[in-house]
Request: fold
Amino acid sequence: MKILLASLVVMATSSLGYADGSGLDDSDSPYVLPPCSDPSDVVGYRACPAYGAWGDNLLAPYVFVDIGVNFWTFSGLAGGTAPSSPRSLAPPSANASTLSSTMMNAPSVDRMITYDERVGVGFAYGLYLAFDFELSAFASPPTTTTSGLLALLSAGIQHRFGPLTLGGEITGGVLAYSPATQTDLAAERVVQVRGRADLWLTPWFTIGGVAGESIFGDGWMAGIQLGLHTHAYGRR
Amino acid sequence: MHAVAVATAFSVLAGCAYRAGSFDSVNQDFTGSHTRAGCLDLAIDRRPDLDRRPVVSYAFGNTCEEPALVDLANVVVVARAGDSIDTLKPYDPEQEIVPRELDARAVGGEAIAYMAAAPPSQLCVDAASIAGIAEPRWICFATAGKEAP
Reply:
């Protein structure tokens, strides 16, 4: 991610420098590269770009970046935000103390919508590793809103079938959140199996969906994302 | 270089993938004689000589959905000067011309000068050899290139 950000900085500062010819003092920036001012573009008569710049992306590792939105459910979080049963369904004649105890012991279901940033690297045979960072506020129950963030590492395999790439992965990581009933930050282990599908809108741009189910517990997730890929059609 | 990188980034977002047979791209001019070799759409042209060396420009677009070989190191270029016919070697003082792969639906281009004993009156390029195809596909330029100013 830092490399990507640094690259963006290089591109941005360099192009700004070339745009007006004097906007930036090149000597002050270690990032700005000398301009390509060769009188000829013939190989052997030019200093830059180097021969074969049109193929440089295939010499670098295949990297993809996804941005999306996910919907999560978690069951039985420590210090859970509330029971899953809506209070309005409680029979009016029920014993108040028994009902209260039952609700407190019932597993809570917390739902949240996350903003997902995913960066991955592809390897041979369709194998890949990806890191997800997700940030959100719990969407439900509405009595007390708590925030949460997820840091996840995924290992998976994918294959392209025409305009679609289908994949499966194992995802593990940590959910850190602020329980409604506590002031301290709590953490929960997350381990999921997931299926993914990406539709290639262009050779380097996808829209896709993901669905996963927790291996431990009853939680599940689903989401959509847009993806940028440094190798066309994700080929390694 | 950076303008190309920025243009490429915008092209990606805009979905500007190369379309087979179009010989058209915002990132690459396809001037010259058009042909196809394997996955490659090729535009080959002879430019004015440079230091008495004939210059050939190549533009290529990958029509396939997988990377394609672009071998300008071993492209066969022959020159006729008088009664002699010679196979020309590229002028490559930095030894940087090597076979490379072009990404699916991507474009690229190069201009290469060739070492010739005498200014050739005719110059022919085997376009198929760029894609590593054995059966030759000759494109010839009869007019001698004028020296670039």
